[in-house]
Structure formats: C-alpha cells, structure tokens
Design a protein that fits this description.
Number of strands: 10
CATH class: Alpha Beta
Strand content: 5-15%
CATH superfamily: NADP-dependent oxidoreductase domain
Largest sheet: 8 strands, parallel
CATH topology: TIM Barrel
Strand order of the largest sheet: 3-4-5-6-7-8-9-10
GO biological process, one term: bile acid biosynthetic process
Keywords: Eye lens protein
CATH architecture: Alpha-Beta Barrel
Distance between the termini: 27 Å
Order of helices and strands: EEEHEHEHEHEHEHEHHEHH
Family: Belongs to the aldo/keto reductase family.
Protein name: Rho crystallin
Number of domains: 1
Helix content: 25-40%
Oligomer: single chain
InterPro entries: AKR (IPR020471), AKR1D1 (IPR044483), Aldo/ket_reductase_CS (IPR018170), NAD(P)_OxRdtase_dom_sf (IPR036812), NADP_OxRdtase_dom (IPR023210)
Amino acid sequence: MNSPSAEKHHIPLNDGNSIPLLGLGTYSKPQKTPKGACKESVKLAIDIGYRHIDGAFLYLNEHEVGEAIREKIADGKVKREDIFYCGKLWNTCHPPELVRPTLETSLKTLQLDYIDLYIIELPMAFKPGDKVHPMDENGKYIYHNTDLCATWEALERCKDAGLTKSIGVSNFNRRQLEMILSKPGLKYKPVSNQIECHPYFTQPKLLEFCKQHDIVIVGYSPLGTCRDETWVNVSSPPLLEDSLLNSIGKKYQKTAAQIALRFNIQRGVVVIPKSFNPDRIKENFQIFDFKLTDAEMKDIENLNKNVRYVELLMWSDHPEYPFLDEY
C-alpha cells in the first residue's frame, strides 16, 4: 500500500469500490446537540479535506449531513462522487421487506440519489414499528426474531438497485460473519465490519479473520469514547491519558489522539472519530504527515487490555448479542 496522504487515503473494498481511511463520525445525543452543529461540522470537515462521513438513521441528523454535503457540492468544493457516505440499518428494520424502504427514507432525508455504504448497524433485531427502542410495560426491550441472512439478501437487492454502492455490517462477531459468508447463493460479501477498535481494544483475532476474507475493519470509538455511563463502560481508563501514547506524541509533536488514529490507519483500519469541535476536527485530520516505526506500532499493540467501552449490556440477553463470543 502506498503511504496514504491527506489528498489520497482510500483503500480498496472487495467489490471494486474504495473507502477513505479517515472519516468524520456524526453520532451525538439529539437532546444535547444544538441544531445545526452537525451540519457545520460536516461542512468544516469537507473544507479541511475529509471525504468520508459516517452517519445513521438513528442519529436523527441525516438531514443536516445531507444539507452540508449538498451545499459543498453547490459551492464547487466537491463533486458527489468525491464524498463517501456510510448509512446504517437500525434494529427495528431488519425484516427484509423493510430494508429498502428504510434506506429510501434515509436517501430522502439526505436528499441524495445513493449512498456509498449501507451497513447493518447491529446483528440484533428489535420489534418493528415506530419506536426505535420498543419496550413492554415493564420496560423490557422487545426483540424480534433475527434472520441475518434474509436481511443481508435485502441489502444485496438495494445494491443491485443502485441505492447503495457497497454493503457491509457492524458489530458482527466471527460466527455472524461466517453465517453470511457461507450463505447459499451469496451474491456480495460484506465489504466492511464496523467495530470498536483502539489501542486498548485492538481486536487482533477479528482483524485477522476479516483480512483473510477481504473485509475492511472500520474502527469506531478510535479515541475511546465519551464518558456517558448510560451506554459506556466508564470504569475503564480514558485512552487519551495513556502515558505511552502521550510520550510517542511528544516525539512527533502530535497529541495522544493523533497517535491513536495513526496507529489504526497504519494497520489498514479505517477510523471515524466523532467530533463537532472545530479544533478537534482539524487535529484528527493531521495524521498523514508522520509515520510510526514498527517498534512503536508493537508497543502500542501491547497496550491492548481487551477493554470494550461500548458493551451494550442492556441487550446482552438478545439471542444475537455479539459480544459473548471470544471474537
């Protein structure tokens, strides 16, 4: 692989398309995010040089992402084909007959003709309906019988219809990936698996398995996560305070965050750090002007604590909860 640069940092996908190694994550709690913050962040990111935006129906801000992309196209800053947008199929939309209408709803919200990558956000189906988190009167989540292969076939049809260029998955473990890969009549392999991945959780076994099957790993929470105890394991140490990452950072005049991001892209892992902070969005992009040595890569790999920040324990009783298996 040529050394990626700020201008050119795409890596190939198994279907002939390609994905930029660095993207902007756009997840934020709608209640806590000022209106327009997402749109301004996406516009700034495109100005800085980001070409990969990671979003989702669930984030309730696809309209802002779409506006930002369309404004930058109208300004002549980018063409549509320069931008790589990833959208996600939520848990309540797994039944095959709901997949295409759900993607079409996202396209309508974004006001785009197609998206670049559509992924199954989680391997766990919830009861379909208007509520994204359906619960019974006792406050228990209402699950739905999951047939991941049938959902996958519906994604394949969306690709054939030109609604998305590529299709992939997220938070799938090895067994769930194998189920799709060995499905009779498989038309397209997943191009990617979006999973938590950072120096405290390097995912060596899943990374190796995906490499063998030509599936790109997209690492979410590449800088650790926010400390929101409603869904994050806050008992684990904050990644960016790590002394090794900070000392390597001093050598290159970079921050611990930039070292953590560089570590992953040098392993061929795509990173999608989320930020709506203009300085951080700029800083996260400045990872193409230096290279970690093999020894530094090894040292950072050795930081692995097998610590998951995003455990999603509230759904650990779902039959397809992915994190009970070793990988």
